[in-house]
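Hi R.,

As promised on Friday, here is the backbone we talked about, encoded as structure tokens. Could you run it through your design pipeline when you get a chance and send me back a sequence?
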């Protein structure tokens, strides 16, 4: 449930509400696969760890599909990433390609964002619904959908830039230098997209606050202690 305060016509969503809304999806889509992978890779090896992560991600997707529940964008992206990693190891067995596979996963994620824009179902809206505790009807608002299409295009471009720069570094530098320099790629390419997303979301809430308020079916909900 969502704790909400009102200031004028615009709802103010608390940090507590965001955490309560987003944490189950983050745990299911990122934390559990990561813990499962780390445990298996030290116990039974890399291939088994990748298979274990894949089975968890696809099992979670199947469970939601069978019971008619919404599929979180974070879970979908996690499944795409582990699929690319496993496919790389199974079909190549190459150490270079294992380091290169995050590039393929990033390209695949960028393609998902781009395809979602063309299909009129922006992935940014799905991810936003995972993290922002607004009613589902709010994500159908034309102003919100337009912003989500724009942000999906921004993320597609940022991820492609990330993949291109990572590939260049992998070819240009030694493995040791690559591992050391790799985190800078995210700072250069994806951090601007994160900042743009946050600023755009804040501007949208200020500009469309009254409209979003009207979409709320319950005036105020309290989070259970």
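Update: got your reply. Pasting your designed sequence below so it's all in one thread:
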């Amino acid at each position: 449930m969502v704790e909400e305060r009102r200031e004028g016509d615009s709802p103010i969503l608390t940090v507590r509400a965001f955490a309560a809304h987003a944490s189950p999806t983050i745990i299911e889509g990122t934390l559990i696969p990561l813990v499962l992978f780390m445990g298996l890779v030290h116990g039974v090896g890399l291939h088994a760890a990748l298979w274990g992560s894949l089975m968890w991600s696809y099992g979670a997707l199947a469970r939601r599909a069978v019971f008619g529940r919404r599929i979180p964008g974070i879970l979908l992206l996690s499944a795409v990433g582990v699929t690319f990693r496993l496919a790389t190891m199974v079909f190549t067995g190459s150490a270079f390609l294992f380091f290169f596979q995050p590039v393929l996963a990033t390209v695949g994620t960028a393609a998902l964002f781009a395809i979602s824009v063309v299909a009129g179902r922006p992935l940014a809206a799905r991810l936003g619904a995972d993290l922002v505790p607004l009613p589902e009807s709010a994500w159908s608002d034309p102003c919100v959908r337009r912003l989500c299409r724009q942000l999906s295009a921004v993320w597609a471009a940022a991820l492609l830039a990330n993949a291109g720069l990572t590939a260049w570094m992998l070819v240009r530098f030694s493995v040791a230098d690559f591992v050391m320099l790799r985190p800078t790629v995210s700072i250069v390419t994806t951090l601007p997209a994160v900042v743009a997303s946050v600023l755009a979301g804040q501007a949208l809430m200020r500009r469309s606050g009254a409209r979003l308020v009207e979409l709320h079916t319950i005036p105020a909900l309290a989070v259970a202690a």
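One thing I noticed while checking it: DSSP finds eight helices and two strands in the chain.

Thanks again,
M.
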